[in-house]
Specification:
Length: 294
């Protein structure tokens, strides 16, 4: 697929590292004195790192970038040298992407490229690929009847509004029946903790999906999964909730890309939650930069 992704001019880059904290996906690292895009897989092209580069070395370009295709990613990683290969392998393991890690190792060995020493969860050097995690019984799709969801309310506590399980997009089954004729609530992970009336004000009558565009590894995979949900079901509406911090705006980015891929037109209502626990009002400044960053 052709998508937007950042590009770094090595001649302009001084290796100052100011871009690293503002990378939405954690995809940038300083290696050999330069900022490097460790993997296409973790860059969503939002460009939140651009404004913090004092040299103007980072821009967004549009080029072919294959989601899920670890071999294609490795083809761009390998020419950058051993240090970047090492960082990429550790990045995959650090995000729990054991399947992609195995594909990367297979690419290296299949092309006669030495696997560099790297941290394999304490081993210090490359070893056997980690075993695939066992399926979790808790990820089974389940609708919650109104009576079951309302038990806490009858006990005098706040009434819960959750209608289905699981809620994490990684675990969601695109074929689950509860997506039929659904009003979707797609939220950043932190929103329910920051906004105390989440159930009452936003979750009532909606099917919930949550993820973190900064810390979750497979953002490109999220685009694919949401596009499949949109394509396979009649979704009435989408409400997008994200925190005011720049990286969390990636929730809307993922939804928009998924809609484009599915070819569906679904009304989207976007709301920003401030870290003070309020819903941002129209026109209110919600993207805050650290002092000294302009």
């Amino acid at each position: 697929m052709k998508r937007k992704i950042i590009d770094i001019d090595e001649e302009k880059c001084t290796g100052c590292g100011l871009c690293i904290p503002d990378c939405p996906e954690g995809a940038l690292q300083i290696i050999d004195g330069k900022a490097r895009l460790v993997s296409d897989l973790f860059c969503d092209g939002l460009g939140a790192c651009i404004g913090t580069c004092p040299e103007g070395a980072i821009c967004v370009v549009e080029r072919e970038a294959e989601p899920y295709d670890e071999k294609a990613v490795m083809a761009t990683i390998v020419p950058q040298g051993e240090a970047v290969i090492k960082a990429h392998l550790e990045h995959l393991l650090g995000h729990g992407e054991e399947g992609l890690y195995r594909q990367a190792i297979e690419y290296l060995t299949g092309n006669g490229i030495p696997v560099p020493p790297h941290d394999t969860a304490g081993g210090g050097r490359a070893g056997p690929a980690p075993a695939a995690p066992m399926a979790c019984p808790g990820s089974m799709a389940r609708s919650l009847p109104e009576g079951e969801a309302g038990e806490a309310g009858r006990a005098g506590r706040a009434e819960p509004a959750l209608r289905q399980w699981p809620v994490q997009l990684t675990l969601a089954n695109p074929g689950a029946a509860y997506f039929d004729d659904a009003d979707l609530l797609i939220s950043g992970d932190c929103v329910p903790f920051a906004y105390p009336e989440f159930h009452r004000d936003f979750l009532q009558g909606r099917v919930l999906l949550i993820f973190c565009p900064k810390l979750d590894a497979d953002v490109a995979g999220y685009v694919t999964k949401l596009a499949e949900i949109f394509s396979r079901h009649t979704v009435r509406s989408i409400t997008v909730l994200h925190m005011e911090v720049p990286c969390c705006s990636g929730v809307r980015y993922v939804v928009d890309r998924a809609l484009e891929r599915s070819g569906k037109t679904i009304p989207v209502n976007e709301q920003t939650i401030l870290i003070t626990g309020r819903v941002a009002e129209e026109g209110e400044r919600t993207v805050r930069r650290r002092p000294g960053r302009g």
